[in-house]
Amino acid sequence: MELYKSTIHELHELLVNKKISSVELTNALYERIDQVEDQVKAYVTLDKENALAQAAKVDAKIAAGETIKPLAGVPGAIKDNISTKGLRTTCSSKMLENLNPIYDAHVIKNLRADDTIFLGKTNMDEFAMGSTTESSFFKTTCNPWNLTRVPGGSSGGSAAAIAAGEAIWTLGSDTGGSIRQPASFNGCVGIKPTYGRVSRYGCVAFASSLDQIGPITRDVTDAAIVLNTICGVDGHDSTSLPVEVPDFTKALKQDVKGLKIGLPKEYFGAGLDPKVESEISKAVEQYRAMGAEIVELSLPHTEYAVITYYIIAPAEASANLARFDGVRYGHRNMNATSAPEMTTLSRTEGFGSEVQRRIMLGTYVLSSGYYDAYYKKAMQVRTLIRRDFEEAFKQCDVLLTPTSPVVAYPIDGKMDPLSIYLLDVCTIPVNLAGLPGISVPCGFVDGMPVGMQLIGKPLDEETILRAAYTFEQANDYHKVIAPIGGDK
Ligand code: GLN
Question: Quick one: pLDDT at residue 485?
Fold first, then answer.
């Protein structure tokens, strides 16, 4: 097997047994990037020199007989809205085209402490707003399973990089589905941890009450390994939870006997592609055969989740993005004749149309006279949605749903924003309720990967990891490679 197709746990074994060096591995990844990046366009920035220097340090540690961490020397990539000191962080926006952060995000500090390697920064929808990676200022990423299809979004670059063999692991961020949906479109594993599990410090804020960083990987074991490194309390994030972080790899047991899996009927309704539904149903039957108990139940407020999210998320975005005013940092128009004109022109030039649309929506729902009718009402509905989950978890241990009602669709600009928003129906409620959710590959429709979502109780990542692992080990979906670059 080629090195670039391997998993973190396989490569760790090869590194500690001195079968390969980290420099060799890192070079293999850049060779792969040279081979396919023109077609996939997963990256905004590459950082070869620093990556190789870091790899050499890991090799020296191994040569000196030091024990290394599971992620040490294994090259990954970081979504471009996560701050990396000295390495350009653009949010795929013209606004931050030349921003070189002066500090590392909390997750980056943790990863550096474990001696991991950053190949570069991955493409995304501008400021993480979108589901296709088409709103990037720089380029549209293509889906390695079919280059004419979207890779999903907003972490489309991070997921496509895994599917194309351009990184061994990546980080994404998930506000309404941006880790799970691209993971599903690219046949990867993606997990959004419980809100507060991972520090948001250094992740450029989109909607602060929903944003969460998480891994995109080839298999569930790798997801658990990355989680072990990035989770944990952080004084720089007031919403970071002061709870102990378990060793998530210990949860990876093949056992779902007696596990109660809830199927919320609202997630299997209108809009769900029947071919996707059929793959999900097969997975349900497999779980049943493996000894899980299937419970049909209802999350009655699901139909209000998308509209609630598209009030709350833009409201928070409009406040968070107010800081990009052409004064403190970011793009500045140099021809304006007054300060207000400078700010207006800087923002209209610096932000793309999707970001401007969200800022306008958000400003509208927060303005006096409309606040009670829209924002306050949305916050009340958010509580009802959270309570739905609390009730459901009295009857089951995990919930099983499709990750997306459809597979990756063509990059042809034919989808209008509203239709795209509506496709977030399966992932958004999980963010509104702050719960952990994982997407695992569970089949194919017309050659495109299908993802199954498992939703857990607050802080119970372990149960969804166990359920996902059990399913993965009983199948081969995670071993099928995207047909790019002549691979079979
Ligand atoms: N697709 C959703 C949106 O456009 C989710 C984005 C995200 O999770 N960052 O807002």
Answer: 59
Are 92 and 44 a contacting pair, CB within 8 Å? yes
* Catalytic machinery residues: 79, 154, 178
Strand spans (E) along 255-373: 260-264, 293-297
Cα separation, 72 vs 70, in Å, equals 6
Pairing of strands 448-456, 437-445: antiparallel
Edge to edge, what strands does the sheet with 43-46 contain? 43-46, 117-122, 75-79, 169-173, 213-217, 189-192, 437-445, 448-456, 398-402, 260-264, 293-297
Place of tokens 């990542």: 461
Handedness of CA 197, 203, 209, 214 (dihedral sign): negative
- Return d(Cα 11, Cα 253) in angstroms, integer: 21
d(CA 449, CA 358): 30
Task: Characterise 239 by phi-psi region: left (phi > 0), alpha (psi -120 to 50), beta (else).
Answer: alpha
Q: Tell me how far the alpha carbon of residue 236 lies from the centroid of ligand 1, in angstroms.
A: 24
Which residues surround ligand 1 with Cβ inside 6 Å?
A: 128-131, 154, 174-178, 206, 313, 424
Burial of 221: CB neighbours in 10 Å, binned 0-12, 13-18, 19+: buried
Is pLDDT above 60 for 276? yes
Best substitution site from 150, 154, 155 to test ligand 1's pocket, by max atoms within 8 Å of Cβ? Answer: 154
Count other C-beta atoms under 10 Å from residue 32's C-beta. 21
* Ligand 1 centroid, distance to 284 Cα (angstroms): 27
> Which atom of ligand 1 is nearest the CA belonging to 309?
10
Span from the CA of 400 to the centroid of ligand 1 (angstroms): 21
The full set of domain ranges for the chain reads 3-260+396-479
Distance 447 CA to ligand 1 centre (A): 25
Distance CA 275, CA 84 (A): 41
185, 151 Cβ separation under 8 angstroms: yes
ω before 154 within 30° of 0 (cis)? Answer: yes
Q: Which tens digits make up the pLDDT trace of 154-197? A: 999 999 999 999 999 999 999 999 999 999 999 999 999 999 99
Structure tokens at 186: 């690219």
Q: Domain 3-260+396-479, what fold? A: Amidase signature (AS) enzymes (3.90.1300)
Q: Residues near 156 by Cβ (< 8 Å), separated by ≥ 6?
A: 42, 123, 124, 125, 132, 133, 141, 150, 182, 185
pLDDT digits (tens, 9 = 90+) for 107-160: 999 999 999 999 999 999 999 999 999 999 999 999 999 999 999 999 999 999
